[in-house]
Structures are given as structure tokens and as C-alpha cells.
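Good morning N.,

You mentioned wanting to compare the apo and holo forms, so I went ahead and generated the holo version with zinc ion. This is what I fed in:
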Amino acid sequence: MGTPLAKRSPAELSGSGAFLEFIAGWHAGLESLNLQADWAAHEISAQHVAVFVVDMVNGFCHAGPLAGGRVQALLAPVRAAITRCHALGVRHFLLPQDTHQPDALEFAQFGTHCVAGHTESETAPELTALPAAADYTVIPKNSLHPAYGTGLEHWLAAHPGVRYFLVIGDCTDLCVYQTAMFLRLAANAAQRECRVVVPESCVQTYDLPVAAAQAIGALPHDGDLLHLVFLYHMALNGIHVVKAVE
Ligand SMILES: [Zn+2]
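and this is what came out, ligand included:
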């Protein structure tokens, strides 16, 4: 074991250079995935597939303290992925969405956002306008996690044939990560075969540079670095990270 990361000086951290270089190379080598070919290779058909559309709500896409351009730019690729899956016959679309209690404990870290009953907690209109919207199941959540205090585990138990999960939305290192890891780890714990796919083009996270964060007394958040590291960490845990799906 080396020195714990938090105890390393900036100079010692440069020792992680080879690793960061490796991740950058891994990222550059990601390839697009043809869904039909992947399903055929794993004996999957559309009824075995669930698409998880995470936190594509007004409060992250359009208006509110946590809305930003990086997530707003996801609307087009997320719409395209939903439309593609719907055209291929997928009818399970699960939408874990921040729908917070007015006094949510999470606000201590992220400020007030997406309160139940407020427009911020509603699905972005670009997604509700799609034909697939008739097959959306919204999963309101009061934390970053899709299953704590929600009905997700009941849904999964009621749909035992569903074993291919496509996870899209925001944020890569927060709710997307929690959702993909939950699906992977729940299957591992139950010895249940499943495939969890995360297409990079359909996930993103926010950016809060050090100077801007210090000016408002918040913790900085390097969007590019954390996006990359958490994609890699998902891959490390058996989640199939690809460049895009087609
Ligand atoms: Zn939240």
C-alpha cells in the first residue's frame, strides 16, 4: 500500500501520471455499440431490456441552481437513445428523478433543488414529448440513490426477465454511477446474470472550477476529470462502458 492519496503532496500526486495517461488511452479507445448485435450476442430481446433515464429533469437541464449547459447538452443524445430503443421494441423506461422533500438532508451538500411539486422535479419536456413517454415509469427519489426509499427493488422483482440495463442521464459520478453500480451489484449479490451498459455520449456531469467554488464557499468539481474517472470506475466494476449506442 502506498501513501493514502489525501496525505500525498501535489508533487507525489504526479506519480499518478502513468495511471491518468492509461485512463485517457482507455477513454480514447472506447467504441460505439450496436444494440441489436449486442442483444443477439447475449440472447436478449427487447422485452428483456430496461432503459434507465436518470435525472433528466428541468432542475438539471433548464432552470434552477443546479441546471447547466453540460447536462442540457445531453437532451439530444438521450432523446435519440430513447427513440432508438423504443423503435427496437423496448417498453421499459425507468426514470429515477430527484423529487426532494422540502427539508432534504442532501441540501446540506448541494443546496435546495428539485423539490417535490416544483417544476424543477418534473421530467424535461423534450423527453415527455416523445412517443416512448407512454412507457415511462418515474421513480421519485430523495437521495442520489435510485433504490433507497423508492419502489425500484419491487419493480425489479416484478420483472425478473429484465436483465439488460442501459443507463443514461446525469450525473456521471453521482446518480448515474449510483444507478449503474446498484444494478450491477444487486445482480452480483443474487448471482443473477445481467448486463449493464453506459454509453458515454449519453452521460455527463457538472463542472465547478476551484476559483468559482471558493468564491461561493462550495467544494470544487472538475467535470472532465470526474466524468472520466467514474466512467473508468464503472468499467472496473463490470459495467460495459461504450462510446455511444446505435
Ligand atoms: Zn438531489
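The chain has one domain: 32-242.

Happy to go through it together on a call whenever suits you.

Best,
F.
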